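Blinded run. Sample ID left blank on purpose so nobody reads anything into the name before looking at the predicted structure. Input follows.
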Amino acid sequence: MTSHKDIKMWTPTTLVLLLIMGLGGLVIIYRLMHGLGAATNLNDRFPWGLWIGIDVLGGVAMAAGGFLIAGAVYILNWKKYKPIVRPAILNAFFGYALAATAIMFDIGVPWRVWHPVVMWQIHSIMWVVAIHVVLYTTTLATESSPMIFEKLKMEGAKKTVYAIMVPIVLFGVLLSTLHQSSLGAVYLIAPAKLSPLWYSSQLPTLFLVSAVMMGLSMVSLETILSSRAFNHKPDMAILSGLARGILIAAVIYLTLKFIKLFKGGIGMAFDGSMEANMYLLEMAVGTIAPIVLLFMKNIRENLNSILFVDTLVIAGIILNRLNVSIFGVYRNQAATGLSYFPSWMEFVVTLAFISFSIVGFKVCAKYLRLFPETEGGH
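Blinded prediction complete.
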């Protein structure tokens, strides 16, 4: 494995990512100075757009790997997955931190983002979502803190965190399970707006199961890409185990979706409408194709094949979140004559968030012991 000290920071790719981050920072400043209307194409009929669909709904789903791997290692004692627990938790931390940031910039008055912490509205699903973001981001920071304490040679603090790691992880699993499902519950308040292809009383369950698919796929993808970037050999036993987990979650998800579709009328998925086409694309890319591929043992044991399946699942679940938040409500919202397509500034900010996560992960890989189980002598 390449020593963390040998990781090159100033590569062309990193410079491009930093450039995107800089441009995104300028757009954010512009948004703060001139408001949402100037920086985005949102309007009264489309108050939620790309930042909610990808940065929040998609970002939180990507972060699901953190509670899954942490629970497997620290609660179930599945030692096989210990080499990837730190990267998984760190990836989840970035996902939640950026989701929280996206929420802050998406609300009308960003500097009031702290209000849910002190102004409890316990009957509001939006308050539930907000408080879960605060609590779980804090939990992920605590779970990641041993890497910082190692760097600062604070052995006492590190031992203290490890001594209470099991209850911390238990709390994190509970929080993340509730939060993944509560994001789906948000859309239960819009039965007349959301297309019946996606609206269901089971939306919280569907959001949770699809987040499991996405989280495991993100951990697998990150494991493969980091092994190539930092020159260490990936453990195929770990990747095959993650692939089996994705397969199980995908089968459960497909079953739930089929039950919903048959109850609502299967014909609506084939009526040729925009919603039907988006639904079929989402299911084909993110669920059916991965299931067919992962049922083949040779696929589950091939690095490039697993990487391809991971990409399909991630693309499919992101599309699902966009379908629920934008495409599924588009016909109803556009009936008033208003429309929505993200502005270039919305795209730039989203790319800047993604770039920040990649650069941040690389910085942690260089300066912290992010992969202690793969280092020689450990």
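Unblinding after everyone has recorded impressions. The chain has one domain: 4-336+343-372.
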